[in-house]
Amino acid sequence: MAWWLLPRHLTPLAKDVRDCAILTGAIAGHDPRDSTSVPMDVPDYLASLSGGLQGITVGICREYGMAQGLDPEVARSVEEAINRMESLGAKTVEVSLPHTEYAVAAYYVIAPAEASSNLARYDGVKYGFRDMQADNLLEMYTSTRSFGFGDEVKRRIIIGTYCLSSGYYDAYYRKASQVRSLITNDFKKAFEICDVIASPVAPTPAFRIGDKTNDPLKMYLSDMFTLSANLAGVPAISLPCGFSSEGLPIGLQLTGKHFKEETLFKVAANVENALGICGKKPSILTK
């Protein structure tokens, strides 16, 4: 079982909320050599773990409850986690993220486009792996990128290159970027009335390794609840909130305001303690 924080780029993975807070505190903060980092003080994330949820308002997204393919066991586990938050002093309020339905489509245009652009440097000349068996420059380029990238990476490079190509940039990448702005604005409006938004991590319990590797579309649709946070650039944390009837873990996602990770840690720590799942293995692993 693992807990992890999902900021825009980095993803600490830890065994509990406390360890995730320690990791986040170590990597957070301004880096003068990184033009994308923000010069802000880093809060004491460990200190934020104490205390109850009085004064915290949890948003329940209207659109998430109507999501297609939402497993009833997932819905029940998330609802139970929300009830625990209320019992610890939190208030709940319904919020709307009306452009959620477009998140998967927008993300899988933007992310492959960025992958295509960023991974172009890995040509075997300056960065990364190089095929040393090639006889000429063109063969070196071709074999380096053929052997150096996995199937999913190649798939994203091809999709991204297509979306950025002449004649398709406006139709795909520009439109997806506009949708990203709408999704960001949705979160800003929602956070005017709540501190965190609770949702499932995925519409189904965890699936077995290899179950969906032959169907990339199914894999992508499993991200329907998590991709909005990536598009909006807001932090989110995921933690186990129950098990399915088959003993497979079910995840709860908490999404917070920009630069308010300490609120996420506070809420997550309370849920973790209340549910008492920390350290438990899925029964499918103990049979």
Q: How would you portray this structure in words?
A:
- With 287 residues, the chain is an alpha/beta fold.
- The protein has a domain at 3-27 and 41-101 and 181-286: Amidase signature (AS) enzymes.
- Helices cover 44% and strands 13% of the residues.
- It has 11 helices and 7 strands.
- The chain has helices spanning 17-27, 62-65, 72-87, 103-118, 137-148, 151-164, 169-190, 216-221, 227-232, 261-275, 283-286; strands at residues 3-5, 13-14, 57-61, 91-95, 196-200, 236-243, 249-256.
- The chain has a 7-stranded mixed β-sheet.
- Helix 4 (103-118) crosses helix 6 (151-164) and helix 4 (103-118) crosses helix 7 (169-190).
- The model is unreliable at 1-8 (pLDDT under 50).
CATH topology of one domain: Amidase signature (AS) enzymes
Query: Tell me, what's the shape?
Result: globular
Under the CATH scheme, which class of one domain?
A: Alpha Beta
What kind of sheet is the major sheet? 7 strands, mixed
What's the architecture of one domain, going by CATH?
Answer: Alpha-Beta Complex
Distance between the termini: 16 Å
SSE-based structural type: alpha/beta
Helix content: 40-55%
Rounded Rg: 21 Å
Tally of strands: 7
Q: pLDDT average, as an integer?
A: 88
Order of helices and strands: EEHEHHEHHHHEHHEEHH
Strand order of the largest sheet: 2-1-6-7-5-3-4
Low-confidence stretches: 1-8
Q: Helix count, per DSSP?
A: 11
CATH H-tier superfamily of one domain: Amidase signature (AS) domain
Give the percentage of residues in beta strands.
5-15%
